[in-house]
Amino acid sequence: MSARWLGRISYEAAMALQVEIAGRKAEVPDAPDELLLLEHDPVFTIGRTPDLSSLGDPRALPAPLVTINRGGQATWHGPGQLVAYPLVDLRRRGSDLHRYLRDVEEFAIGLCAGFGVATTRREGLTGAWVGERKIVSIGVGVRRWITMHGFALNVCGPLDGFDHITPCGLGGVTMTSLEREGVQGVDVGKVAAMAADLWERNGSI
Fold it and tell me: What is the pTM for the complete model shown?
């Protein structure tokens, strides 16, 4: 299947699967794009940057910290958040990473719209926003022109993991979720099912 719901898995397991798929796709140019949909055990991540200020005191974080091959500052993943990892061959898209980022944003905006939540872009920032509140975080990496990582949509439940960091390095940002924006009875599995349907209908992201 090109879209897979993996349930709740560790960050390490998801990373290993991404590396495996990305390596295979790099060697097989006509391999289909794939979308991994999942929920993580609590974890903090940050891109490879010398600026670690968004972490605050890394020793005080209440969950493991992983440094990964994506752009961007610190974020949190955990229960109640849908994480989507598209593995897309950018060689078939003109090797245009900037355009791909906009495509990821558009996909996430459409996913939120499917639950009646209107989101927008903000000039100079990645992600999707409800007014001034951030609901989708985006961070991507590329290995041999195959994309890794992707976006995280806050669905339901506590968001207190973000209280321990400066999310995406944006001081004063308020994080929100589908539930906080008034969507009732929503869970990660339901949102993953809609994301898979949107992916299948579009043929990719």
Answer: 0.95
